[in-house]
Amino acid sequence: MNPANPPRQLQVHRLPMAHPGDLSALADLLDEGRVRAEDVVAVIGKTEGNGGVNDFTRGYFTQSLMHLLGARLGRAPAELQRELPCVLSGGTEGVLSPHYSVFSRAEAAADAPPGPALAIGRAFSAPTPAADIGRWAQVRAVAGAVRAAMADAGIADPAEVRFVQVKGPCVTGARAAAALAAGQSVASADPNRSMALSRAAGAFGVALALGEMADDPALESALLTRFDLWCGRASVSTGVEVEANEVVLLGHSAQWRGPLRMACEPMADAMDLPAVARALARLGLRAAPQLSADDSARVAAALVKCEPDRRGQVRGARHTMLDDTDINAQRHIRAAVGGLVAGTLGDGRLFVSGGAEHQGPDGGGLIAVIAHAA
Amino acid sequence: MNPANPPRQLQVHRLPMAHPGDLSALADLLDEGRVRAEDVVAVIGKTEGNGGVNDFTRGYFTQSLMHLLGARLGRAPAELQRELPCVLSGGTEGVLSPHYSVFSRAEAAADAPPGPALAIGRAFSAPTPAADIGRWAQVRAVAGAVRAAMADAGIADPAEVRFVQVKGPCVTGARAAAALAAGQSVASADPNRSMALSRAAGAFGVALALGEMADDPALESALLTRFDLWCGRASVSTGVEVEANEVVLLGHSAQWRGPLRMACEPMADAMDLPAVARALARLGLRAAPQLSADDSARVAAALVKCEPDRRGQVRGARHTMLDDTDINAQRHIRAAVGGLVAGTLGDGRLFVSGGAEHQGPDGGGLIAVIAHAA
Amino acid sequence: MNPANPPRQLQVHRLPMAHPGDLSALADLLDEGRVRAEDVVAVIGKTEGNGGVNDFTRGYFTQSLMHLLGARLGRAPAELQRELPCVLSGGTEGVLSPHYSVFSRAEAAADAPPGPALAIGRAFSAPTPAADIGRWAQVRAVAGAVRAAMADAGIADPAEVRFVQVKGPCVTGARAAAALAAGQSVASADPNRSMALSRAAGAFGVALALGEMADDPALESALLTRFDLWCGRASVSTGVEVEANEVVLLGHSAQWRGPLRMACEPMADAMDLPAVARALARLGLRAAPQLSADDSARVAAALVKCEPDRRGQVRGARHTMLDDTDINAQRHIRAAVGGLVAGTLGDGRLFVSGGAEHQGPDGGGLIAVIAHAA
Amino acid sequence: MNPANPPRQLQVHRLPMAHPGDLSALADLLDEGRVRAEDVVAVIGKTEGNGGVNDFTRGYFTQSLMHLLGARLGRAPAELQRELPCVLSGGTEGVLSPHYSVFSRAEAAADAPPGPALAIGRAFSAPTPAADIGRWAQVRAVAGAVRAAMADAGIADPAEVRFVQVKGPCVTGARAAAALAAGQSVASADPNRSMALSRAAGAFGVALALGEMADDPALESALLTRFDLWCGRASVSTGVEVEANEVVLLGHSAQWRGPLRMACEPMADAMDLPAVARALARLGLRAAPQLSADDSARVAAALVKCEPDRRGQVRGARHTMLDDTDINAQRHIRAAVGGLVAGTLGDGRLFVSGGAEHQGPDGGGLIAVIAHAA
C-alpha cells in the first residue's frame, strides 16, 4: 500500500422510511455530518410496493433519493441517477420492514480496526443493446463489470468476493422494435421472459468473473434451462430504467479497515434454515435458534434471494404459490422466506428479493449477511 | 379403570388434498380399513382459499367430507355436519401446504404403548342466541362445553389439557335483525367485529374452564380491550354456518394409550422462534435450528395462531400488513409465521390461523405440536 | 314435422345463488314442478370466485348441482357430470351478480306461441388427446360436435344458429407427460398457453361448422396469431376437468315453439356500447340509453365475451390491465364490460367471460341476448 | 365589470401520463408556451395505484408535479404544494386511463367567445383541528371555503355553481393522540371512519354554502347516518397530507369568457346510465347510446363519484363487492361505473372516485362533465 492509496473504510447505515418518498433518516445523517453525500456509493432497499411491473414505489424512492443527494451535491438528479446504483426490491410482505441501506466509503479513521475488512466496489458496463440481452454477450459484459468492480474495491482474489449485486437492462417493447428494425433479433420480446433471461445472464456473468464458469458461448443455451448451474454469490435484478449492467460488489480486502465482515450461503430451498445459521456462524453469530439481542445488534444488513419452487412442491408437499390468481407468487415466497429469516435474526429489516434464477440452487436461493466483527 | 371403559387410543392422519374437493386420501384410508368412518371425531385442515368472508374452499371441503362420510355411514350429510366438528382455516400462503388432519379414536390396540397418552374429547354448547354473542353468556357457554369435552376425553385435571379448538357462531345481519325484532340488543351488528368478539369470548371461555380466569361478568368489558388477558391453550375460529360453540379438546389422560403426546407454547410475537423450539423440546424434538428428518417424521400435526401486530410494528420495525389494500393482513401474517414454523419443522403441512385475539400474547399467538414419543 | 317429433319448447330460468353451494332456487323449481330434472339440458352461470386457476367456486357449484340433480334422477353425480354441460365463469366483479341459467327442454305446451322459436342442442366430441389440443384435429372435433348439436336442436341452416358455447379440454402437466411418453408432441406444455390454444381452436371449430371458415389445416398456424380471423357466434372456455369438447348450441328452429328469441353481435372493443344496443334492437328492445323496466323484464339471459386489449390501449388511451400485479387482467375487463352492459340492461345478472381469442374482433368480443318476443 | 377586472378564461388540458412520475406532457405545454406555470390553479387526475391507504402513486405524481412547476416558478416544491390543489384519485381499473387535467386561468383572449362561461375558483379553510373533523365545525369550515371559492371565481348565485371538489383532512393516529392529550375528543380515532366522516362533513359543507341545507348543528348526527341527505354537486376526498379543507369550485359566470360549459347530475345507482345521458344532454351532447366522435371530442373532462351499495344489492340483485377479501370494494365499483361511463363517452380518460357518502343518492353518486359549447 502506497501513500497515494490510504486505507479505506465502508460504512453501512440501515435506515427506516415512513413511506417511499421519505428520505428523512438519510437527510438527518447528512445534516449531522455522519455521512457525506459524496461518499455514498450505493443504496439497496426494500419499498412497500407489490414488487411487480406496476410497482412505482421504487421510482418514487429513487426520485426522492436523487433529489436529496443532488441538492447536497449541486448536481442534477437525473445525472446522478446514472452514476449511483440504487437497487430496490418492492414488496415488504409479512414481517418485512421498509428500509434502505446506504453504503458509503471514505478514508479509514485513524483508529479504525485493521483489515482485511469488508470492501465495496462498483462498476457499470457499456450500454447493452437489446440484441445482446439474455445472450452470451451480456454474460461477458456483466463479467467485465464485475472485474472492474473488483478492481474498484481493491480485491484481486475472486475467493475474497462475498456478494455481487447486479442490476441489468431488459428488452422493452420499444427496444425490441428498434432492434428488429435494425435487422437484429432479440432473445425474447416478451418482457417477463426477457427480464428472467437478463437475470440469468447476470448470474452467469458473475460466475464467469469469479472463475466458477468457463467463457463458453455454448453455455448460452443453459440460461433458464440448466438450473443445476448457479452462482451462490450473485443477486440480480432487472429494470426497464437501466441500459447498462450496474454492479455493486462486496468482499474482503486488506486495503480496507473497519469492523465489517460478510458471509454468503446458498439456500437449498425455501425452508433451508440451516443455511441461514451457517451464514451467521461464519460471522461468529449463533442462531440457537434465534440470535441474542447482542448478536442481532451486530448485524448491519441481510440480503436474501428466493423463488417459489417451479415444480410446485417444497419437500414433497404441494404449495399453491404458482397457481394463485389473487397474490403474485413472488409476494408469497418473499413473505415466507422473509418470515423465516426475520425470525432467526429477530429483525424484519431484510432485503428479500425474488427472481433467483441461477442465483443459488433451483427452488432455493441464497442469504448474505453483513455484520460487525465481535 | 373398569371393564366398561377399556383404554382408548387416538389416531391422527395428516392427509394431502389436490384441491378443496379432494377427499381421496381419506377415502383410501377408509377403503383400506386403516380408519373406520364411525371412529372419526374431528377434522382440522387448511384449504387454499383466501381465508376471508368470500372463501368458499371451506364450504366445498366440508360438503365433500360430509358426503364421503355420510355415504359410508348411511347418514345424511347435513345431519352429520351438525355432529362432526370440521375446523378449516383458509389460506395456504407461502410454503403452507393444503392438508387436513383426521382425528379418530377407538379402543386401544392390545399392544399399544401404555398411557398417559394424548386424548381427544368434543362437545357442543346449546345454540348461542345472537344477543349472547360476544358477551359473558357466551363465555360461560364455551366454558361449559370445554368442561364437557374434558369429560368426553377422560381428563379431570385442567393442567393436563394441552389445546382447545373452539368454533363459535357470529352475528349475521339476519340474526341481528331477528334479535332486534325480539327486543334484544347485540354486542355488535358489524359482522367482522362480531366475529372478533366471538373469538375473544371463546378464548375467555377456555380460560374460565381451565381455571385461568374468574367467572366475573365484569370481565365482559375486557373482551377486545384488555389484551394482557389471554389463554395460551385456546384456538378459536368463527363461522356463519354454526349456531352452537363447537369444542375439540386435546390433552393427556391415563385412560388413553398410544405414542402421541402434545405440547403448546405461547408466542410473544411473529418472530418468536424460541417459543417454537420450546414446544418442540417439550416433546423431545430438537430444533438446532431445524428438526432432523427423523424428528420431523415424528411430528403428527402442528397448529399455530398468529396475528398482524395491531400496533404496526414488530420488534420496533414498521410492518405494512395493516395498511395493505391489495393483500389482507391475515394472509400476510400466515405467510410469514408459516414460513418461520415450516422452516423449523422442515414441513409446510401446518395449520396456521389468524384472528388470535386473547389466544396468546398481544401481537403473537401460540404454537401447538402433536408428536410421537421417541 | 311428423307425430314422432312433436314440437319442443325451451325454458330458461335465471336463478340467484347466495353462495357457490346454494342450489336452493333450482331445488324450489323442481319441488314446485316448474322444471323437471330430466328436462335440464345445460346450465350456464357466474360464480363469485376469481375466475383463475385457483377458482374453486366452479367446482363447488358443479358438485352441488350434480348432487341435487343426481338425487332427483337417482343417478350418480359423477356420471351425470359427464353428460350435463355445466359452463361456469368465475368472477362477479363490480355490479355482476352471482346467478345461473338453467336451460330445460320439453314437449311444447299446447298453447305455446308458434315457432320458429329458440332451440337448444348439445353434443360432446370424442375425447381429444393432448396431442390434438390447439391443433387442426381439435378444430375438426369441435366442428363435428357443433354439427351434432345443430342436429340435436333441429337446426339445418347455419344462418339460424345464434350462439355456440364450447367447453374444451386443455393440456395439463400430466397429459403432456403422457403424450411425450407415447412419442407424441403437444402444441404447448404451458397450461395457460394450452388453454388459450384450446379456446382458439374452439372458435375456429365453430366457424368451420357454421361455414365461415374453410377446412384448411394450413390455418392451424393462424391460431393465436391471425386475430383478424374470428367467429362472432362462438363463446369458448376450457377446463382441466373435461376431456371432450362439450357444445351447447342455441338458434332458431321451426321445430320449436315458445316466446324465446336470441340475437348476437360482435363487439369491436370494450367500449362498444352500440353493439349492445344493436343486439337488443334485433329483439325489439330499445336501449335509449337504458332498457325500460318492461323491456328489461323481457330479457331471459345475456352472455358476453371480452378481453383486455393486448395492445395496451382502448381507443388511443393507455389502459393498465395487463401490467397489474395486484388484479388479474381478466377481472379488470369483466368488471368494466360488465358495468357497461349491466347499465344498458339495468340488470347485473350477466354471464361475462374473458378469454375471447378469435371470439369476436381483436380487443373486443361479443354479446348475446335471449329475450321473450314482444 | 370595471377595467381592473378584465374578463378571464379557463383552460382545461387533459393530459396522458406514462407512469405516475411522468409529467412530460405538461412540461411540453409549458415549453411551447401553451400554458404558463403561473396560470395553473388546480390539477385533478387519476393515477394507476390501488386507491387505498398504501397507494403511493398519488404522492409520487404530486412530488413530480411540484418539482416541475416549482422549477419553472423558482419556488420550493413543498411551499407550492400548500397553495396548489392537486386532487388525485388512485385506481385506473378496467378501461380507465391514467391522466390528469390541468386547470389554468388567465385574462381572456380578445377573440374569446363571450360569457357566461365556465369559471374556476379555489380557497383553503384554516387548518381544521382533529377535534373538529367529522363535526359541525368542519361543515362550517368547508362552507366558508366554498363561499370564498365562489368569490374567487366571480360567482354570486349558488345556482350557477356546477361542481365543488373538496379535499379534507382526516384524523391520523398522531393527531388523535395530540387531541386527546390536549383534553379534546375526536369524532372517531379509526382512520377509515375518520376519512368517511370528513368526506361526509365536506358534502354537508358544500350543501350549506350552496343553500341546500340549514346551518343546524343538530344535523351533525346525520353524518353517515341520514343517507337521504346529499348534495349532488359535491365531490369530496380526504388525505392524510392536508390539514386544511381545500376547495376547487367550478360554475358559470358572466365575468368569464370562452367555450367551456359544465353540467352535473346525481346518479341513483351504479347502473344509472340515464343520468349520464342527462348530464351530456344539458351540454348538447347526445348519447344514443354513445357519443359520436365529434361529440366525444367536445368533452374536456368528466368526473364521477360512485360507491358500492352498502345494502349488498343493485336493483335487487346481490353484488359481491363488500365481501371480497381479494379486491377492495372501491376498486370494483370504479371499474364498473368507469366501464359504463367510458362506454357512453367513448373515452376512458375519466376521473372516477369512490367514497361518495352524501355526494349523490345512497348507493349512487354523481357525474359531472365539462365540454366545449357546440
From TrEMBL, chains A, B, C, D:
Residues 1-109 are annotated as: RU A. The active site is at K167, S237 (nucleophile). Mg(2+) binds at E307, A356, Q359, G360, P361, G364. GO terms for molecular function: hydrolase activity, acting on carbon-nitrogen (but not peptide) bonds, in cyclic amides; metal ion binding. InterPro entries: AtzD/Barbiturase, AtzD/Barbiturase_RUA, AtzD/Barbiturase_RUB, AtzD/Barbiturase_RUC. Its EC number is 3.5.2.-. Keywords: Hydrolase, Magnesium, Metal-binding. Gene3D superfamilies: Cyanuric acid hydrolase/Barbituras, RU C, Cyanuric acid hydrolase/Barbiturase, RU A, Cyanuric acid hydrolase/Barbiturase, RU B. The keyword Lipoprotein does not apply. Residues 117-254 are annotated as: RU B. Residues 260-374 are annotated as: RU C. The keyword DNA repair does not apply. Substrate binds at R58, S89, G90, R199, R334, S353, G354. It is an enzyme of class 3 (hydrolase). The monomer structure is formed from three repeating units (RUs) that share the same structure as one another. The monomer and the active site possess nearly threefold rotational symmetry, to the extent that the active site possesses three potential Ser-Lys catalytic dyads, but one of the 3 active site surfaces varies in composition suggesting it is involved in confering substrate specificity. Cyclic amide hydrolase of unknown substrate specificity. Catalyzes the hydrolytic ring-opening of a cyclic amide. Does not act on cyanuric acid nor barbituric acid. Belongs to the cyclic amide hydrolase (CyAH) family. Homotetramer. This is Cyclic amide hydrolase. It comes from Hydrogenophaga intermedia. The lineage of its organism: Bacteria, Pseudomonadati, Pseudomonadota, Betaproteobacteria, Burkholderiales.
